[in-house]
Amino acid sequence: MTPVGSQLDLDHYLERIAYRGALLPTADVLAALHLAHVRHIPFENLDVLLGRGIRLDMDSVFAKLVTARRGGYCFEQNLLFAAVLEQIGFRVRRLAARVTYRTQRVLPRTHMLLQVEADDTVWLADVGFGAAGPLLPVAFHQGQPQTQHLWRYRLVELGGLWSLQIGMDDWADLYRFGLDEQTAADYEMANYYVSTHPDSRFLHGLIAHRLAPERRLILIGSELTEDRGARVDTRRVDDPAVLRTLLIDDIGLPAAEVAEFIDTLVRERA
Q1: Is 126 annotated in the active site?
Q2: Which domains are delineated in the chain?
């Protein structure tokens, strides 16, 4: 988390996400910043696969996601976004969730999300879920469907826990969470598990996602899914040259980082 009294380079961050709008703690600004962030900063796990580890101090997060124009996963993305929102004047609470999406077992609470207050409404903000994650904040309105471009979300509370769900006629849980505020120590422990434990999905292959209002690109291992709401297409990407182009041109990762990863991948396959 950003140390008390410190300031990140807000102008540099805004340039990174191509945002030129107002900077007031309103719901409209929250939504605009949220969408700009997920459109321009991809979700990816290259550092985990390359054995570099993931550092959660703000200098490291900012240097990676903003200065180096990389992506990252939930802790990096939402720690950065929380610091930006607080610098603008939003009230933010940092939370933790247990991912339930497409899993058959109970997972630890290893996902970071945010609760943000704006315009007399409480919002869930989450720029770090990737894949099926929201493009915009979701209002804490019990069971109310909220359309976000080609997708719909809702929050459902039961027994003191909230679930973020995606769907249309049928709804699927993405994750479940309580409202207990988390500390830096909580995230450090969860981050260590996610980036080093042999059961963590982030150690089992490439994960790279890029979200936009018109489509989601979801690369998991060699499987690429292009989700356009009513139409979902899936294909394999096995050729390293095709993968290189995809990661640079479509996902938006720096060429030098992609080249190092592709070289490592080719050596492992040899």
Answers
A1: yes
A2: 10-199 (3.30.2140.20)
